[in-house]
Amino acid sequence: MAGNSQRRNRRTANKKGAQVGSGGQRRRGLEGKGPTPPASARKGHAKNRIAHAKAKQAAHRRPAPRRGGAKGTSEMVVGRNPVYEALRDGVPATTLYVQQYIDNDERVREALQLAGERGNINLMEAPRAELDRMTNGLNHQGLVLQVPPYEYAHPDDLVVAAHDNGEEPLIVALDGVTDPRNLGAIVRSVSAFGGHGVVVPERRAAGMTAGAWKSSAGTAARTPVARVTNLTRALEGYQKAGLTVVGLAADGEHTVEDLEALDGPVVVVIGSEGKGLGRLVGETCDYRVRISMPGGAESLNAGVAAGIVLYEAARRRA
For residue 141, is pLDDT > 60? Predict the structure, then answer.
């Protein structure tokens, strides 16, 4: 009969009753615990270990240089003719990579000779697979030249340098000029006509690449280029420092030949050939001037326009 068994450890009930002093554990056990966390957040899960490893690597990884600061990223010039021309035109370089067992033609010999004459360029031999990896599969023809990041100046440095020389600042600012060859040509004109530097915006504009350096014909070594995050604010800063901001525009109220402001401290702003000056930049200018063109051409290349204005400024200052 149930409950009268003499067998040891015999269960006499189908359910275990509530224990005294459980403290509501049963009730809490019935409460929901919320949604299941993702695998990367569950301790012990493989994805959790992977996430921790990635976070640890990121904490120890050096931050990448910020574009537009004092230093950017290095550039690779690839191909036998481009490498030779860069070395011939004095483009600064740190390392010349040469493919193992390369066909030693005239361009290769000339590139090696120019690099050797510089004395400060490392010569490295590398297998073709490594050069393919470095150039992302470009047709390097066995020669790769590493160009160091360009060290941009601060916009205030251009004014300080002019005052240190006892001269009125003559600066060119570019708005939307995206061709590095135009930038190099403008740097060359600034150097030729006694200017004190060039200012370029960080975004949607050409920077001092190997192509710009080549177009400058070596003058980039002595003519500083400053880079700014906001061109309008940089121009307003120049105005506060006493400089006149002159913008070139096809519909300008004045002509370059009649503008007396070129005699004093001035910033000449040049826009792209297609779009011209941006709205905010144009509104910031103290004067909007045009270049007289009796032949009837609608516009001029940015490099040509800069040369004309700089020549007029140099003529007035002389």
Answer: yes
Strands 143-147 and 95-99, bridge-based pairing:
antiparallel
State the Cα–Cα distance between residues 116 and 122, nearest whole angstrom.
Answer: 9
DSSP 158-224: HHHHHHHTT---EEEEEES---HHHHHHHHHHHHHTT--EEEEESSSS----HHHHHHTTTGGGTS-
Cβ contacts of residue 58 below 8 Å, gap of 6+? none
Angle of CA points 102, 108, 110, to nearest 5°: 160
pLDDT value for 18 = 55
**How many CB atoms are closer than 10 A to CB 224?**
20
Q: Which amino acid is at 287?
A: Y
- Which residue in the block uniquely carries the two structure tokens 């007289």? 292
Q: What are phi and psi of 286, to 5 degrees?
A: -75, -35
So what's the pLDDT on residue 221? 85
Model pLDDT for residues 31-88, shown as the tens digit of each residue: 655 566 666 566 666 665 666 565 555 444 333 333 334 455 778 899 899 899 889 8
Is residue 259's pLDDT more than 60? Answer: yes
Distance CA 37, CA 81 (A): 58
Q: Which two tokens stand for residue 130?
A: 């490594």
Rg (CA), the chain: 34
Q: What is the pLDDT of residue 65?
A: 32
Nearest one of 27, 47, 25 to 37, comparing CA atoms: 47
